[in-house]
Amino acid sequence: MNNILEVKNLKKYFDVSSGTLHAVDGVSFSVKKGETIGVVGESGCGKSTLGRVLIHLIDNTDGQIVFNGKDITKIDRKELSNLRKDMQMIFQDPYSSLNPRFTVYQTIAEPLQIAGGFSQQEISERVYKMMDTVGLARRLVNSYPHELDGGRRQRIGIGRALILEPSFIVCDEPVSALDVSIQAQIINLLLDIQEEKKLTYIFITHDLMVVKYISNNIMVMYLGQMVEFSPSEELFEQPLHPYTKALLSAVPVPDVEHEKKRIVLKGEVTSPINPKPCCRFSARCAYAKDICHCKSPELIEVNPKHKVACHFAKEINGLE
Amino acid sequence: MNQNNNILSIKDLSVHYITKETGICKAVNKFSLDIKKGEAIGLVGETGAGKTTVALSILKLLQTPPGKVVSGEIFYKGKDILKMNNSEIRKIRGEEISMIFQDPMTALNPIDSVGKQIAEVIYLHKKVSKREAMKLAADALELVGIPKERMNEYPNQFSGGMKQRVVIATALACSPQLLLADEPTTALDVTIQAQVLDLMNELKKNLNTSLLLITHDLGVVAEMCDRVAIMYAGEIVEIGPVKSIFRNPQHPYTRGLFEALPSNKSNSKRLKQIDGLMPDPTNLPPYCKFEPRCSKGSKGCGAQCPEFIEVSEGHWVRCHLAGEKWG
C-alpha cells in the first residue's frame, strides 16, 4: 500500500459557551508517501485544528485516521509516544513555539532524550549533524532563541521536528511569520530535506503562491469542511468551487501588467457554532440558489483526481 | 518637482534608538521622501528596515527615549513637524494625518465600545456635540461595511478583519489628507484583504487622500500604489514609479526580492534566495549596506556609500553598478 495516511470522515467539535463549534467537520482524504498536500483556507476555517488532530495532539470527535495501516485514533498513551517518532509538527510562530530558557542544543536534543535509548555521545552527534542539515552554524549551539532572528529560530523548529527522523510532518504556516527573502531560504530547505529523506508533508498555509509552489495536491477548506481537492496545477488552472475562485482572484499579484478581475466576496463568514445544514458558503456565494440554503452539498468527483463540494459545480463551470 | 504639490516632504531624517545594553541602533539613516497630494506611495522592506520608525516619526509618536530623531526635517504643508509642540501636533494627528496600525488586535482599546472609540476622534477634532460625534461614528462604521447596530459592541466581539476595519474607520473618521498605513492587511486573509484594499482605493479616489503604504507584500504595492520606495537597513535603496520598478528593478536587493517570490510563471524547482541577513543596525558598514549579501558587488562597493543615480525619469537607485547591464 502506498498511502501513508488515510483520513475518513474526520470530525473535531469543541464545546463552547454558545454551543458546539464544528472546527473540522467530515473531512476525508488520503496522502501518498513522499508527496505534499497543501491545506489552504481563511483563518478560522479549521486548518490548524486539522493539523493537530492528524498527529494526535488533540483527540478527534469522530472518524478515522489510518497511519501506515493503523487507526491511530484508538491507541493508548504508550503506543502514542512511539508514534511521535514517526509524525512531527513544525509550528507557525518561531517566536513563541520555542522554550526561551532552552539553548539550541537543548531544544533539538529534547525529543531524543524523551524518546530514550540514546547515549550522550549519540545525542550530541545527532544534534550537530542536524544543525548542519538545517543550516545552523555550529557556533550557535549554546545560543538562546531570543539571540536569534526569525529565520534561524524557524530552522531550530525544523531541526527539532526532524531529529527523530519522522516520515510524516505537519507544517503549520512555517513561513508566514518570515520576510520574503528568509521565506525563500526556509522553503528551499524544506524541499531539499524532503527530497533527501523522502518525507511526506501536510503544508498548512494561507499563502496561495507558496502552496502552489510546494504542493502536489491542494485541499481548500471552508468552515471546517473540504470544499475542493485537486492536483495543484489543475486547481490554479481550473478552480471549480466559487470560494476557490474568489480566493485565487483575491491574491494580489506582484505584476503591473496583470489584469485585475478580483471577485470581492460580500457578507460575513457564517458562524461555525451550531451551523445549519446548508452549504456553509451560501451566504457569501454569488451563485447560491434555494437548495444551497437548505441542503449541504456532497463531494462530487469531476475527474478521479479533482473533487468539489458544490451543488452547481458542473453548471457554473460549463462541464457536461 | 513642484514644491507646492507635496503634502509631506521628509528631508535627511535620521533616527537612532539609544540603549545602555546595545548602544546606538541606527534605525533610519538620511531618509528623504516627498509625497504628493493624492499620491499613493508604497514603502517596502524587511523586518527591521526602519519602515515603521519613519511612520512614527511623521506623527511624532516615536517613544523617546530610546528613540531619538538626530537630524532631518519633516515638512507638512510647509511647517516642520519636528519643531512643533505637543498641542500643535495634536491638532494634526488624527485629523489631517492619521495612521492605521499594524496589529488590529492590540490597536483598539478593549474596554471601550468601538463606536465610542471612533466618536472620540471626531469629538476631539471637530466642533460637534457628543451625540453628533456618535452619529458620525455610525456613518464611519457603515462606510467600512460594518452595520451601525454593532457600534455598541466591544473589540473582542469582532473578528480580525472587522477589527481592522474598525481601526480603518477610526483613521478615516476625520477625512485625513494623509493616511499612514502600517501593514494594514498583513494580519488579514486574502478575501478580507481584497475588501480592505478596495475600500482604501475608493477613499483615495473620493477624498484625494495621499497614502503612505508600508508593507512587505509586493502584490499589494502593484495593486495600490503610484510610486514605490524600497528600504534596506534604514535607507531607501531604490525609488520610482511602480511600473518602472516592477518592469525593470535596478538594485540587486530589489531584484532579489522579486526573484524570491514564488511566482505563477517560473517552474523552477528551487526559489532564488538572498543569502545572509541584514547588517546589525548597531554596527552598520561605512560603505554600501547591501554589499555583504550582494552577488554583483565589485571592488568599489566595499569602499564607499553609493549615491542616488537617476536611471530613468523619477526612478532613482542607490548602487555603484546601477545602469550597467548585467544578467
Automatic annotation (TrEMBL), chain A:
The keyword Nuclease does not apply. Residues 5-248 form the ABC transporter domain. It comes from the Bacteria. One of its GO terms (molecular function) is ATP hydrolysis activity. SMART domains: AAA. The keyword ATP-binding applies. It holds the Pfam family oligo_HPY. Keywords: ATP-binding, Nucleotide-binding, Transport. SUPFAM superfamilies: P-loop containing nucleoside triphosphate hydrolases (SSF52540). InterPro entries: AAA+_ATPase, ABC_transp_ATP-bind, ABC_transporter-like_ATP-bd, Oligopep_ABC_C, P-loop_NTPase. GO terms for biological process: peptide transport; transmembrane transport. Belongs to the ABC transporter superfamily. This is Peptide/nickel transport system ATP-binding protein. It comes from Ruminiclostridium sufflavum DSM 19573.
TrEMBL record, chain B:
Its main location: membrane. It is a peripheral membrane protein. SUPFAM superfamilies: P-loop containing nucleoside triphosphate hydrolases. It comes from the Bacteria. Gene3D superfamilies: P-loop containing nucleotide triphosphate hydrolases. Keywords: ATP-binding, Cell membrane, Membrane, Nucleotide-binding, Transport. CDD domains: ABC_NikE_OppD_transporters. GO terms for cellular component: plasma membrane. SMART domains: AAA. Residues 10-258 form the ABC transporter domain. One of its GO terms (molecular function) is ATP binding. Coiled coil: none annotated. GO terms for biological process: peptide transport. The keyword Cell membrane applies. The keyword Membrane applies. InterPro entries: AAA+_ATPase, ABC_Ni/Peptide_Import, ABC_transporter-like_ATP-bd, ABC_transporter-like_CS, Oligopep_ABC_C, P-loop_NTPase. Belongs to the ABC transporter superfamily. This is Peptide/nickel transport system ATP-binding protein. It comes from Ruminiclostridium sufflavum DSM 19573.
